[in-house]
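Schema walk-through. Below, the input block comes first and the output block second. Nothing else is stored per chain. Lengths vary across the set, and this one has 530 residues.
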Amino acid sequence: MPQAMNDSPLSVRLMTEMALILRPTPPNVPPGPALDGLLTGMLEVFARGSGAARAAVVLLEPGDETPRIRAVVPEAGSWPGRGEGLREFLRPGPPRFRTASEAVLAGAKIWLGGPPGPSVAVAALPAEDFEPIGKVRGALVAEIDAAAGVAAMPGAAVLLARAVEMGGVLAAERAGYAAETVSLRGRVSAGFDEMFGPRGCPGLAGLRTLAEQAARENGPVLLWGEAGTGKARLARLIHEVSPRAAKPFTAASLRDPAAIFGVAGNGFSRPGAVEDAAGGCVYLADMAMLAGRGVAPGHSDALACPDIPDRLVRLAADGRFSRLGSAATRHSKARLILGSTLPPEELVREVPALAPVLPAVGGDGGPLRVIRLPALRERPGDVPVLLQRAVALLGGRSGTRPSLAPRAVKALAAYSWPGNDAEVETLVSEALLSRSGERLDVGDLPSRVFSLGPGSGVAGEMADVPSGADSRRDAPGVPDTLWDMERARMIEALSRHGWVKARAARELGLTPRQLAWRMKRHGLGRPTGG
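--- output ---
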């Protein structure tokens, strides 16, 4: 319920000078002290220009039960009114006048400014959220006699109300940032603990320092390693521990240049990952696509856009880029993180246009940091960690608590893992579907784990592993390699059920189709005359 504001020269001058004090709060100043300082400065301008002997801002803020004086000038002395006694000032209405001798609040005489006589004027601070209940959340209270000064109070009250609203918005934003920071730190802590912590993969421990160093820098980063080694995951962790963590993280593949740089023209425009990052980080995967690796002819837009290397060089150098179909130059402050299955030297040989960014062979190198992610077969000690994590995750989703037999862990540690870390969850998921009990054993593993045939490395690794999961495997005469063990187990089940595949498959925890496929792989068939 704002009062009608006076447009006298004094009122205009006061409002102009008070408005000049309204400015953004420095990021290192807490919202509370910032609002106190702002209100005090505005009151000083008002008191000086209006001739008020004393002025104060009384506020009833959300969450407070009683009003309080938030700012007062001059600071010497004190206003006797406090607590419930200040609520009298918060009644809505036009400026009011009361002599100190008549000011009776909460049953006590409140003397404002010495002996009886000086007038006290009150102007409400308009606040929309308090109007429905007939209240205002604040008031400008002044010990003042000049009529022109009193007439300027409604305008001054409006500006003070805006200052209070700005303080509330700032406090809410800071609280939101603090909550987001706590959430980000929690996620980052969990992510780092899972990847590098005591419960993480020991084979990746050496990457932690490199990731933390990369997070503190602003230059581009190249993460290279085989498919499935976790390049995208490491890129996100680098972003989340960097000063850019509160800004977006976007990802796109070089298979789709339009998704990276955006599209313009033909009546249709859309931004790409570079613009969507808005000063955060953008992760671009599949750098090897530029060298034509893993691309079927006609199946990659990157090959149809030959200036992609030049675009990447410009983007990494100074943030300049343009949308596809447009010559207009745009600028991005996003940090560039690249993912590749090829080492930088090979990328430079295959794509010379990338030399300004990538380290040249035998040269000083480009401006980016290079981090290599080792393949899973190079870190066999990580296999049990990843397996236990995948079993717990997938078992939890299905409401079960399966375990891994030592023989199964040994077999999987010897497996070549062509899909690296990303293959672990897929393989465990397949094993859980085909398991015959609560324990995952070698017979539950997908056939590709030991599909290299008799004498393979995986089968040979299993020859000296004691079995505690199935007494039949410890019996004399039972073959003790994965290949032969699977064959013997199928023959035993099929013989027991008269070579009826449906019954044997049920015992083995397989579908009839899975059993038929494995029989074909082993060259098994119903014995003649059986």
